[in-house]
Amino acid sequence: MDPSVFPWWPAGQQELYEKNWNRLSTFPRVLGRKMAEYASLSSTLHEFGVDFSILRICERRLYPRLVKLIDEIASPDRWLPVPALEKSGSHALYPRDLAVVLPNETILVNTAANLGPLPDKIGKYRLKRSPLGEGGRIHIRKHVAVVPTFMSFHSGEGCETYPYHKDLQEAGLTVIQVPNNLMYVNRGDDPGYIWDDHLDRSMGLLEAKDGSLHLFIDYRYVPVVSGKKIVRVTPAFREKHFKQIREQCEKAGVIMHIMPRPLRVPLSLGFMQLEDGRTIVTGGEGQLSELLNKLLGRKRVYHVGGPFRMIPTYNRAGIHCLLNEFPVEFLEYLQNTPPPPD
Q1: Are 115 and 107 in contact (CB under 8 A)?
Q2: Of 65, 75, 215, 306, whose CA is between 20 and 30 Å from 40?
Q3: Is residue 304 within 8 Å of residue 279, measured between CB atoms?
């Protein structure tokens, strides 16, 4: 196993992650499985007629097998070079974490994306830097935004999300604020816990075919209410915060669902719902598929070929992290903007 990999996962999914972590003993085997899952996701998009591009942030020569797999599935012109992101850190390399599009035609660009000076507007879209542009931190659907209580930055600093709610409220969004995730850190002989701000690791927001909104939460989601101190979590503590989330959901017109059983696939609640309502979800999570089929209809739910296990385990990224919907104008801007100077 690659010794540089530092494993940390949602505390409620710890056993599930460790099972996958120990399943493959060599890095080449892990890489092969990860590439197969990525190719399967591309195949699902292609099969169901979803128009997509692949942001080419790394050189194609680094992953020739993956490039070949995807070229065989779709076509070479799917690859979209993005020179502007060549010097961005890992906090902005997934499409989800690059930017967030708000209903009022504002694009929040992740402050960690090293894009250099931003224009005020691109076409009809206004651009603004914000830590909420790191899209794993926020779920938006219709009139609702779900955000964590705290955000951590790659610099090691952190802050409350409350000061950034203004951008969301100006876009006509009702904000639901939920506690952060408790994360288990596997340091070998010195395991520990930290808090995390990416909600899509433990919950997902969905618009049903009748227009109702639904928030799905992991049965074993462990809430953390402080950005600095990890407190002892008891069943009563969890129920207290589930109640607070439910009350906010009811005020916003959102139906909250706590999954009835522990998840079988890591980060499976990180599904992707397209603007037109079609939803892309991992295979292998029967309880979630059952709910989505009921709320959307079977023809609107697209399952990625096999369970999406290795990318979530080794990269802590689910389907929601790997997909995003951007206006064409924004993609053209990324494609035509050179990397900022050193």
Answers
A1: no
A2: 215
A3: no
Region of 97 please: left (phi>0), alpha (psi -120 to 50) or beta.
alpha
DSSP per position, 290-319: HHHHHHH-GGGEEEESS---HHHHHH---H
This model's pTM is above 0.85: yes
Q: 3-class SS at 207?
A: strand
Show the DSSP H helices in 122-222 as ranges: 165-170
Q: Can you give 242-268 as a three-state secondary structure string?
A: HHHHHHHHHHHCEEEEECCCCCCCCCC
Query: Closest Cα to residue 168, out of 104, 117, 124?
Result: 104
173 phi, psi to nearest 5 deg: -95, 135
Q: How far apart are CA 150 and CA 159, in angstroms?
A: 6
